[in-house]
Glucose-6-phosphate 1-dehydrogenase
Amino acid sequence: MAPQPTTTLLILGASGDLTARLLLPGVSTLLRAEPERRLRVVGADVRELDAADWRGRVQTALDAAEVSPAAAAAVLEHTRYVAADATDGDALRALIASLECERLVIYFALPPHVTRLVCETLERIGVPSGTILAIEKPFGDSLASARELNALVTRIVPEQRVFRIDHFLGLHTVLNLLGLRFANRLLQGSWDRGSIERVEVLYDETVTLEDRAGYYDRNGALRDMIQSHLLQIMALIAMEPVATVGERDLRDAVSTVLRAARVVDPVRHSRRARYTAGSVEGRPVPDYTGEPGVDPARGTETLAEIEVEIANARWAGVPFVLRSGKSLGGVRKRAIVYWRPPAHVPDGFRGHDTADRFVIDFKPDGFELHLTTNGKGEPFTLEQTVLRGELGGGALLPYGEVLGAILDADPRLAVRGDAAEECWRIVEPVLEAWRADAVPLEEYEAGSRGPRHWASSGS
Ligand SMILES: O=C1O[C@H](COP(=O)(O)O)[C@@H](O)[C@H](O)[C@H]1O
């Protein structure tokens, strides 16, 4: 087999938190699992960063992942950091020329408005043939901006070489949804409106802003989590069976189901809230509006919920509730599929009142099947038995999984342009209703489960 070309991973925005916290560790787990990969890592950002500081960051990630000495040495030999403003055409041209690379991946670890400026620059100066663009979420900040960005990036490289990154798509449980849904008969037979009453995708976090107010306060929970990650998860739960797990089949099926999805009444079917002072896991948490970097006038929500309807023969009438928030009292990162009650439970049984459900846990990976069964001892008393299973996690961190796919030019784990637009199309009416103040911005105490009257605060 011909040797693979060396890929240069050029990280724009490399001095930021995302690179140190997620990208470099992701690259490192990839190199631990596949030390034969020929990869050069170059960081660039407007901020000056000492060469030793950058090398130290790379080395720390390689050491933490226990990458083999030979593979780590190969990366460290060539890695470097360049202080450059990538929105400046001359600076970016010089940076790309200095890479002398066989194959280039440009990774945008940048806020959406800077990503757009850099893409405009790339359109002017051009990129080496075969270049891949890997763009972090959120992809744009509205339907209109996502459309413009799609048009822009596909003037630089073809769609197949645009990787809209969503690290959730590298989560094993999320990928395992495909096996769970399509490779066993048990679930396939009851995966539709005839059997399922409601689906919830919940992503409750205990973390607060983690020094990301600059990004988060401009976006809020709906844009940060629901518009991207949770709608993608919903699509995998709801999509039609595919003939193959090939890129075209998978991404077509995701887009098709997203096209059928909508928030029927954005005022009745959305909620927003932000946290007030409280305590999370023993840590005091200040009022959101008092967090450093937050502009209280923006009215940013830290907890959001929407109810989506999928208008097709499989799902019509089944609510898909998507919720995510920060500074909550407990972590819930799961999807819950509630089955309808049986058509008839024989008279004489007692204790049958909890819906049977299938719970898919994203962190840690696993699932639970809650089934109504006969109680222990007393034969005519019903209770719920929980069957638990682990879902195979992989050797890679989600970012490693996603980066591996980028380096292999396999777009299955990336969001296609039309799907990115559909996600914005779904949330846009909600954003509009919120802008018009048609939905009140409620409050919840940090450390609680959210406003008490929200149904999703209890399940
Ligand atoms: O993309 C994001 O995801 C994280 C949650 O993902 P996890 O893998 O850490 O569970 C979220 O905290 C962050 O705000 C968001 O930007």
Residues 205, 207, 224-225, 333, 363 surround LXAUTJHC (CB under 6 Å).
